[in-house]
């Protein structure tokens, strides 16, 4: 009898141990599920464009392949989209936290063998990784990351890199899955785009093309999104709205609390919800994800957009239009989606109403842009007190403009853009500004 009792006790003890282990694992791997729709989903069901996954909006703007100490740009946007998705789908096996003594040590360790580096245009909260890729443990000493490196060594791994703090999260990945990504890269024509490095802001390694860039200037047929779509999406009862026409030609619709303002040309809108001015402290990743879900609630993604900036202090999030993998800029905000938050609700929502429909093939023009070295040389000549320590990024992008005589047509012109002292600015370099020989800059 005593033997049976002892046996039962042993079984109960074993079950308690298993339960304890299960609870411990649950606590370690718990991922908070933010209620993104709380106080946001007061919108009517309206489909203006598309819904997007988080990793379709939070994505890199530069892909660099490293091989034998050399660096190559991977620039085909359809190819990089495929590669990025494959990286996001990698299964992580083990993980650890790594600290480097200097940015140079980080580079020497991670870039000495074949690897792929993906650079984001803004620092990302580490917990964002739980939503753009497979879930990982959240309790890291690292708070943010701005790059992902996939090492194709004998023991392949994925690294979430924080250059600002010289830290990384290392995730071991399956060799077979990493090998497939490497094979695709090796069979691409990446060696046609050699890049060199410079040390930029906070010791960040910046990559610039050795050669001049051949890229097409594009012209698009456009169509404005109807303001009535946003009236239906952003107000509970659009039929009760009061309409006002302002002296400058703008239209305003209000329900007595909230207001929707439409520009004279029907190409920009601003939605304001002033009742909620109390500042409710959102965690950075929650604010970013809520901003994406807010647009998803009315299927508001009409073109390709990428997260480009956010501010915890100002409670703002910005998304930038992209064409063929390049950021598109406009001085009047015609290529940006801007959101600000108060008391856990949308406070202000500003965006372009222009939708790019299709490129007009007959209007395409080939443009030759300066090389990275020519760009740096030009900046030292024309920009007062230019210093690499203030340079955060240098990318080829597009300048967006609409035809004056035909507002249904828009052109995106290739141009160098730099992020300097926290601000993006376009750099126009005429062919006469480059004294070196070689092919002529500008339109062919």
UniProtKB/TrEMBL annotation:
* Organism from which the protein derives: Schinkia azotoformans LMG 9581
Annotated Regulatory protein YycH domain ranges read: 6-429
Return the InterPro entries for the record. Answer: YycH, YycH/YycI_2
**Which CDD domains does the record associate with it?**
YycH_N
Q: Could you identify this protein by its name?
A: Regulatory protein YycH domain-containing protein
